[in-house]
Specification:
Strand content: 15-25%
Shape: globular
Bound molecules: S-adenosylmethionine
């Protein structure tokens, strides 16, 4: 794929294999990529679809929708109509590959999006949680702590409050709990105390300021093994400002209804809390049959090629009733 996105899709072969799209079907099929990101998984899923099939791509981040719209416009056959007329970020196209619709929203809104856009029940829904490498490369929103970008960390900047605003007012204990639970950071209390002390004279406003502060709080400084010691704190704040676990919990309750009988739900998680939510929800839902007793993990080759994949876990369930 041409490089307007730097994101490498994880567990790609496994996603295609478990999508169930190779099973013979005569009627048109609908695939929902609920976390479009750089469009990597979506692009490969499109290759498995026919002109009368549907691909729906959803992302909370308007930038992701714009990037993928531009990418698909460029890569899909020249006889295809453009995916969108920029600057619209909600787009539909009938093309010689399959019908594609890209929507800026949360995957948890899928039931109402299906009604609003007359989307048929899905044969496959994919969620690939977390953030994309494109977001990490974006210097303006603070995902990359090696830059001076504003510490925002929201996927959708119209929702909720930025991480900088959260740090300016949150109670110290609550902050320590967030860093501990969502970041699994042993030095959460120390980091929370340093943030609260610092804000008395100058609040943390940029990613770089937060990273420097964390480096000073964590024994051994900046690098812990192969990862930067600020990674866990940034992850925790990102999960908190985006309310990520709540979106996931609500979605898993709602998504079985969005599947056609025999349709598959594939979820890739990167965090133990997310994986626990997915594992229990899939097991407890009486409309789903779990197809992966144990999560599918990336191969050694994949983790070597793409270190970001190392904590990925794929779970798959099928709608039975
Ligand atoms: C790991 S990336 C997905 C990468 C994609 N599978 C690919 O191959 O390029 C995760 C994406 O999910 C988006 N996202 C996170 N939470 C979301 C939600 N609740 N609803 C929709 N998109 C979400 C992020 O903005 C990010 O672009």
């Amino acid at each position: 794929m041409a490089p307007t996105t730097v994101h490498i899709p994880v567990l790609l072969q496994e996603v295609i294999q478990w999508s169930g799209l190779d099973r013979s079907r005569t009627e048109s099929r609908t695939v929902v990529d609920g976390t479009l990101g750089g469009g990597g998984h979506a692009w490969h899923l499109i290759q498995a679809l026919q002109p009368h099939d549907f691909l729906i791509g959803i992302d909370r981040d308007a930038g992701a929708i714009e990037r993928v719209t531009e990418l698909f416009d460029r890569l899909l056959p020249p006889n295809a109509e453009p995916v969108s007329d920029p600057p619209t970020i909600q787009a539909e196209s009938t093309r010689s590959t399959c019908r594609i619709r890209l929507i800026q929203s949360s995957y948890r809104e899928l039931p109402s999006l299906m009604v609003d856009h007359a989307i048929p029940k899905a044969d496959c829904i994919l969620l690939d949680l977390g953030l994309s490498s494109d977001q990490l490369e974006d210097t303006s929103r603070g995902f990359s702590f090696r830059t001076g970008g504003t510490l925002d960390l929201r996927f959708c900047t119209d929702e909720g409050i930025s991480a900088a605003d959260l740090l300016a007012k949150i109670d110290e204990k609550e902050l320590a709990d967030i860093i501990y639970q969502f970041g699994e950071e042993r030095f959460s209390r120390r980091i929370a105390r340093a943030i609260v002390e610092r804000r008395r004279h100058s609040p943390v406003r940029t990613a770089e300021e937060l990273a420097d502060l964390v480096h000073r709080c964590v024994p051994g400084g900046k690098i812990h093994g192969r990862i930067d010691s600020a990674t866990r704190t940034f992850q925790a704040l990102r999960i908190a400002v985006n309310n990520e676990l709540e979106h996931l919990k609500t979605a898993i309750e709602r998504l079985p209804d969005c599947l056609a009988p025999g349709g598959r739900l594939l979820i890739i998680s990167f965090h133990s809390l997310e994986d626990r939510i997915v594992k229990h929800a899939m097991r407890e839902c009486d409309r789903l049959q779990v197809l992966t007793k144990k999560p599918i993990l990336p191969s050694d080759g994949e983790t070597y090629e793409n270190p970001r994949s190392r904590s990925a876990k794929l779970r798959v369930a099928e709608r039975i009733v």
